Amino acid sequence: MTAARYRNHPLWWAFALHRASGLALALFLPFHFVVLAQALTAPEALDGFLALTANPMVKLAEFGLVLGLALHMFGGLRLLALEWLPWSGRQKTLAAGAAALSFLTGTAFLLQAI
């Protein structure tokens, strides 16, 4: 199989989504910790930042964050299944199920936030 054919395989896309969501979460965490530190050092600055969370664009970004977290979590569960369970033809189904559960989780969060 050529490299281009591998990239059309659903399990390659599951890997790519898992890797991208992990990188996005790793980039988000330092920003998150800085904002949380404001609660200890500058509560008024934190209050000003929290006022921004009513913005619809922030809610959309939160949807992306929850979607990324769900993608990474369910993708990790898929990887654990690959490592610990015997190989079967159901791997594509597990990957599709992980993506579907991630999207449903993110959408439920978005609907709750609106």
TrEMBL record:
Keywords recorded for this protein, A-Z: Heme, Iron, Membrane, Metal-binding, Transmembrane, Transmembrane helix
Pfam families referenced in this protein's UniProt entry, alphabetically: Sdh_cyt
Residues annotated as transmembrane: 63-81, 93-111
Localisation: Membrane
Cofactor requirement: heme
Keyword presence, Metal-binding: yes
Top-level taxonomic group: Bacteria
Binding partners and assembly: Part of an enzyme complex containing four subunits: a flavoprotein, an iron-sulfur protein, plus two membrane-anchoring proteins, SdhC and SdhD. The complex can form homotrimers.
Described purpose of this protein according to its UniProt entry: Membrane-anchoring subunit of succinate dehydrogenase (SDH).
Family named by the database record: Belongs to the cytochrome b560 family.
Protein name: Succinate dehydrogenase cytochrome b556 subunit
Gene (UniProt): sdhC
